[in-house]
Amino acid sequence: MFSKCFFLHKFLLLDIFPFPQIEKNPCKCYNLENKNMIQQLGNRVISYFSSLPYIFGYIGRIFYASLSFIKRQKAAKKILIMQLLFTFIEALPIVVVFSAALGSVLYIFGYSFLLSIGQGNLIYDLLTLVIMRELGPILVAFIVTARSATAIATELGGMVTSHQIENLVSIGVDPVDYLAVPRFLGVTLSVFFLNLYFSFCGLLGPYLISQFVSSVASYGYLPNLLKSVSVFTVITSVIKSLIFGMVISITATYYGFNVERASTEVPVAGIQAVSKSFVGIIIADVVIIILGAFR
């Protein structure tokens, strides 16, 4: 920053001031730029908090419109089906393979370690804790964010820049009801169902692998596993999957609608949707863990 100010003064003011005076001016420019940076930071903080009422209003509008989605026309329901197809069905093979591999690796190495210290039965509690309650929901949410958050934000942003949103408003169609709500429901349900498959395959995969490795290791696997699954673990997993799906869909649609006129804002909206979804998922996960600790 110092050198930038120095050369700016050098090329613009060399004919007016002698060179020794130019060396002193960068400090003033540096202080001025520091002041401008602090002012810009303050403006961004103010603009962020000033947009919070709009964000909360947008979230409430989506929840309210979701309650009456059953009464919507076939076009909106078709968008919901297409969103389920893209987010749930097409992502299902990735989730199944990933969960089975993760559960198998965790079982093989974890069982060997716990058996060496005489605590082999704890492997079932470890599997349910990691696969069902902790890693399962957040990994599924990350997969859906990487695949669907970018797609939703860029699609809606492209519709804004091509004036399709204005056309919908001009004919009396609410874009939130027609575009945002089906994607909100589709992504939320997709994360919920993908989390169920992740838990099922992640817990069943080690049993199938142990059948090929050693039939002794698989003896009593299913009964002990069912004993380790608690109601609290199931409820926590379901709550996490639903909240994570809501965070992803609301963030993606919000940044998609937030595009203004330039087509160059569309990829920026996709990047913001992904990054802010990751942050929202992590914050929601921490909050749920903290609340679960006070049960």
Question: What would you note in describing this structure?
Answer:
Helix 6 runs antiparallel to helix 11 (265-293). This protein has helices at 2-13, 19-50, 52-67, 74-89, 92-116, 122-161, 164-170, 175-213, 221-228, 231-257, 265-293. It has 295 residues and is an all-alpha fold. It has two domains: 2-48; 53-293, no CATH class. The protein is built from eleven helices and no strands. 85% of the residues lie in helices and 0% in strands. The two termini are 52 Å apart.
Topology overview:
Elements: H1 2-13, H2 19-50, H3 52-67, H4 74-89, H5 92-116, H6 122-161, H7 164-170, H8 175-213, H9 221-228, H10 231-257, H11 265-293
Mean pLDDT: 81
List the helices and strands in order.
Answer: HHHHHHHHHHH
Low-confidence stretches: 1-26
Q: Characterize the largest beta sheet: strand count, sense, and whether it forms a barrel.
A: none
Q: What gap, in angstroms, lies between the N and C termini?
A: 52 Å
How many distinct beta strands? 0
Q: How many domains make up the 3D coordinates? A: 2
- Kindly name the structural category: mainly alpha
Helix fraction, binned, reads over 70%
Which characteristics define this entry?
mainly alpha, 2 domains, 295 residues, 11 helices, disordered N terminus
